[in-house]
Amino acid sequence: MKDLMGKVAVVTGAGSGIGKAIAHAAADHGMSVAVADINIANAQLVVDELYAKGVDAIAVDVDVSDIESVRRLRDAAISHFGAVHLLCNNAGVWVGAHMAEADIRDWRYLIDVNLYGVINGVNVFLPDMIAQGTGHIVNTSSMGGLVSGPPEGLYCTTKFAIVGLSESLLLESVESGVGVSVLCPGLVNTNLITSSSALRPSNLSHDKAHKVAAPDVKSGLSPEEIGRRVLDAVLDEEFYIIPHSDFREILMMRHQGIIDAFDRQVARYE
User: Fold this and answer.
1) pLDDT tens digits, one per residue of 174-199
2) Do 100 and 52 touch, CB atoms closer than 8 A?
3) 240 a catalytic residue
């Protein structure tokens, strides 16, 4: 979208971290914002900050793993604003575990929030965007959705799936007027690690101890920088949003490895 002034953004996971920064960046571009989060108190604090800027905003309690909750989010946004032009499927969680020691509840927690959170958002909001002939969807993946590595296998599984979903959505949406971007950051200085534990539902919790150290997110980029880059990408209609320049060599090595394997097998069998 080339003009965001007066448009409406819905951002999930917007009570803190990257989502909060995206909400503020959207507001700085003249957008109204539905601040959606499973922690409604945090969402309301962000809305209060936006109010102080003179921005029209609402706080909405949402569990992105529940499609009925996401439908209520859409209904609240449409009822208040009349339309939604930008959807940021940003809510996400982290679990660090080697696959051999992971509990199936670790897998389900990550898939429910990280992957189904995006699936539900696309399923609920995309038809309305197509009907109105304009819109943009940003799905938050990770550098772990482009390059895998231990002990991030569970997390990477969900983030690779988001990249694949987003690439397919981009191809399907060419004629619809709906733009698509996928955000693939490295470390960002947020509360992702602590909030992932605190918000984990009891039916997906367990007492097993994983022998994995959490990443040092304090050394990461600021969420405000990520938020600015997301809105720049929406305006520029950029698909891949890759804020961390130090991953270039790793990405090249991964893709060169794929090409090398392709060439070896072509040479052997054809």
Assistant:
1) 899 999 999 999 999 998 888 888 88
2) no
3) no
